Each structure stands twice: as C-alpha cells, then as structure tokens.
Amino acid sequence: MGLVGCGTIARVMHLPGLKTMSELGKVEIVAVCDAVEDAVNTVGDAFEIKTRYVDLDAMLAHEDFDLLVNTTPIPSHYAITMTGLRAGRHVYTQKPMSRTVDEASALIDEARQRGLKLGCAPEHPVRPVARTIKDLIADGTIGKVAFARVPSSHEGPERHNVPRDSTWFYKPGSSPILDMGVHGLSLITSILGPVKRLSCMSGRTQPVRYTTAGPFKGKRIDVEIDDNSLMLLDFGEATFAFLDSTYCVQATLSPRLEIHGSEGTIALTGRPGQNEALQVYRAGTKEWATVDIPKAPPVRDLGVLHMVDCLLEGSDLLLTGERGRHLVEIMAKAPQAAEDGRTLELTTIF
C-alpha cells in the first residue's frame, strides 16, 4: 500500500495502524506522499519509510502497490481518490469521501467500471461495539426503537495540542458536520440503517477563534462557517435521532450514544480502548446491566484493516462507497435544510 496525506490523522491513527498490520504480515508500506516536504519527511523518519514523494502522480507512476490510503484534508478527498482509482489502485479514503453526492457517485462509478474496491471512513460499521448494539436491537432487547441521542461535537480543533494550523477547519469547504458529525452519522446509520428525512438548525456562535495549543498557539482564526449545527433525523416508522455537530462542547458527562426503545434503553459511555462501557436498561427488570463488548483486533485503524482483509480474503466490503455517499448526502442537505427552514427527503441508500 501507499499513503497520501501526512498530517495529524495519518500520524496518530493510520500509520500506527499500518505499522501493526505490517508486523502482522498483512501489508507492505511501499511509499508515502504529501505536498509538504517537511511533513512527508517527518512521517518517513518516524515510521521508517524510505520512499517519499511530494507529488501523487509521480508516486502512482513509479511505485507498484495495490491500495492507496487517502488521508489528505477534506477538500482534497474527491480529487485524490479519483486520481488513485484512475491509476488502477483500490482506495480507502478518510471521511467524508467527497463534498457532493454527484462527486461520490462519480467515484463509485469509476471504481465499479475498473473492478476496484472503494472503501470509506468512518469505521463504525466494523467496530465490535456498533455490531453488538445492532444485534441487541435486532434481537428485540429494547423493543421498538423510538429515538436516539447522538453527540458528535468537541470544543474546536484550535484547542487541540497537535502540530497543525486549524484555520482551514473554519473555511468554506469544511464544517463541524463534515469533521465531527460524520462520526455520529456513521455510528447511528450503521445501527439503524439509512436516513429517510432530515431537518437542521445551524449558526455561527463566534466570529473569531484563537488557537490555544500547539505550535500555532495564539493564531487568530476568522470563522467563516457555521460552528453549531443540530440535526433531527428520521429513519422511518417513527424512529428518530437527535445529532449535535458543533465546535461548542468544552466538556460533557453525557453518554456517547443513547438509544431509547419501548422496552428499554441502550447507553454507550467512555472511550474506545480505554473505559468504553455498554449498558442496557430493561423495562421488565427496571435495572441496568453491562453488556460485554467483543475485543477489537489489536490495530489502531480498523477501517483500513477491514479493507485489507477484504482484499486478501475476497470478502465483502462493509465500508462501501454507497454507505459513504449516503453520509455525504446527509451532510450536504443538512445546511440546506437549515437555510430553507424545512425538512428534506434523502434519495440515497446503502
């Protein structure tokens, strides 16, 4: 495999995961690429990858590998993924796969025509906890699902102590919905299925923010996008979900997910790999009980691991382009719904 985009997400998630996969004998990291030479050299040195490029076309032309992992910034996802597919590579792309449904459809069509696999983050559908919750609901553990609460916010990227200029998060082409909301959307749709309708309220709480940590500490950021969006999702049959997608949550004591049904409640708390806990309240016993979560593979990056295993074993891909396209449609229509003040129908499924 080859990786393009040597920023924070590659350094803290994908490359550590790929290093583990390499140690397990599943992958060989052939080359890395980034338009910023310092970034690609930093990553190359840290992960002992000798072959480095600052031009993707050059890497695709001169290096022989099967899978391209796209960890570039959001505005670049579509173009980079299309370039990889046209070069005959399978592609796994960070979220969101594109900024429009038409772009997502073009990627799906390109992959299909070339007989290639197109995988899309986020990885929630392959996480053991999401599969466990889906099974609990399918088994009728909490009866008919009424609604879910899905927090998908944090305090803002400018507050994170990482070597990154966070200005682009607040420029047109990015938003908390694309950055954070996509995680909650991925999780809840992996459990309840596609969304049928949505409405949204959205606005800008601060005109200016300042970087508070990392090497860009003190830098002024003019906020040019909405930093506070709340969505209402309709899954059909009177099953709804509230989803917040903001850069306005300094701290919270809320569960990461709550799903309420006619016979009980499912609550997910803690952080993956740390203090994550899954609990079920049953109306019949009026008690909470802890549910065991199957242990995840010892790899930081479950999404790429899933795609690698699919390529090695010929098994079905769960993190499909169709799933990624549905998330793109939700994220594209949410701002439109907020601006128009109306509920919008969704057309894509997976």
Explain what this protein looks like in three dimensions.
- The protein is 33% helix and 22% strand.
- The mean pLDDT is 97.
- Helix 7 (176-192) crosses helix 9.
- It starts with a strand and ends in a 5-residue tail after the last strand.
- With 350 residues, the protein is of the alpha/beta class.
- The strands form 3 sheets. It has a 9-stranded mixed sheet.
Order of helices and strands: EHEHEHEHEHEHEHEEEEEEEEEHHE
Could you describe the largest sheet, including whether it forms a barrel?
Answer: 9 strands, mixed
Strand order of the largest sheet: 16-15-14-13-7-12-11-8-17
Distance between the termini: 27 Å
- The stretches of 5 or more residues where confidence is low (pLDDT under 50) are none
Basic shape: globular
Overall mean pLDDT? 97
- Overall strand count: 17
Helix content range: 25-40%
**Pairing-aware structural class of the strands and helices?**
alpha/beta
Overall radius of gyration: 20 Å
Helix count, DSSP H or I runs of 4 or more residues: 9
Strand content: 15-25%
Summary of the model, kept short:
It is built from 9 helices and 17 strands. The chain has about 350 residues and is of the alpha/beta class.
Task: Present the secondary structure layout.
Elements: E1 2-4, H1 8-23, E2 31-33, H2 37-46, E3 52-53, H3 56-62, E4 67-70, H4 77-86, E5 90-93, H5 101-114, E6 118-120, H6 128-138, E7 145-151, H7 176-192, E8 197-203, E9 208-210, E10 220-222, E11 228-234, E12 240-246, E13 257-261, E14 264-269, E15 277-282, E16 287-291, H8 302-313, H9 321-340, E17 344-345
Parallel strand pairs: 1-2, 1-4, 2-3, 4-5, 5-6, 7-12
Antiparallel strand pairs: 7-13, 8-11, 8-17, 9-10, 11-12, 13-14, 14-15, 15-16
